[in-house]
């Protein structure tokens, strides 16, 4: 294109696809001033102005504001610096949009009322420090005034929800559910009762902190229950009775008879008292929020174990 070629504002509009009104606005703002004017006063633009206008359009499509574009064109700032700043702004905008999407998806899933929508929106926007404080306050209330195992509760308190800077929708949804769970009066009552039982057991000398070996035993027993369930066996089957005998023998203390139906019934009641799906859900949600490996539910296996002990 010859350097001397000039275009009217209408020709510039046809070449760029921009409305004449927009080009005139950019021209008046000094972003793309006319190269010269015709004898009749019409604006004329050369190839350089065309290229400048294309750059303005590109930057506007990328969301860059007019003041920043003016500084870039005047060489007061580098396009690279504009891009870095704009990427940061877009990242923040994307984060907020994902928060909104997570809330709206939860609204659709729950068929929420207006009050619940407002609550979920506030929870989704809660800053990290407030999330951590929510957990600290929860566990402080759960052990307040009770002589509970400090090491165990320090471990429980240490597991905090840590949303990444760019959370997935399922992580945001899990956080909303988690925050609602720890603020639910029924759930708080459930965990408080567990704390009171632990304090009572410590007072009578019956409390023992779960050992690593004991946890491994439970993992094995749960796996056996899963195998029996997959095989279609009942809790009072030979495999169910064998599993109940293992659990009773592994759980009996001095002076306790693992064959005694009364002991097994008491053991089943103790296990059942801590077997609430909401307590399991607490850890499943934390795993999703923090990107930990998924925690499968053991409810069906635990029901098998309880029935086997009671059969």
Protein architecture, described:
One of its GO terms (molecular function) is DNA binding. It comes from Amycolatopsis jiangsuensis. InterPro entries: DNA-bd_dom_put_sf (IPR009061), MerR-type_HTH_dom (IPR000551), MerR_fam (IPR047057). Keywords: DNA-binding. This protein is mostly helical. The protein has three domains: 6-77, Multidrug-efflux Transporter Regulator, Chain: A, Domain 2, CATH 1.10.1660; 96-202, no CATH class; 210-310, no CATH class. The protein is built from 15 helices and three strands. It has helices spanning 9-16, 20-28, 47-61, 66-73, 79-110, 114-124, 128-143, 150-158, 169-182, 185-203, 212-230, 238-251, 261-273, 277-290, 299-310; strands at 6-8, 36-37, 43-46. The chain has a three-stranded antiparallel sheet. The longest helix is centred in the first third of the chain and has 32 residues, at 79-110. The model has no long low-confidence stretch (mean pLDDT 87).
